[in-house]
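Lab notebook, bench 4. Still working through the backlog of constructs that have no structural model yet. Next entry is a single chain of 66 residues. Request: give me the structure tokens for it.
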Amino acid sequence: MEIKVSENNVDGALKVLKRKLQKEGLFREIKRRKSYEKPSEKEKRKRREARKKRIKALRFKKLALH
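Model written out:
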């Protein structure tokens, strides 16, 4: 990943970098890997994430129909 700093605007470049990392889910991944996750907890988390994804997809599908 590359962020260009224009006119010595480091703060702006840092904002852009943070936004890109947030979009990629890097902060969430770091938080998740901070401690050990039991396999059963991992399965529960995966199911919970999949459920959220399905609900979100249904919501967008309903919006597209109207």
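Notes after review: Residues 39-65 form the longest helix (27 residues). The radius of gyration is 18 Å. Flag for follow-up if needed.
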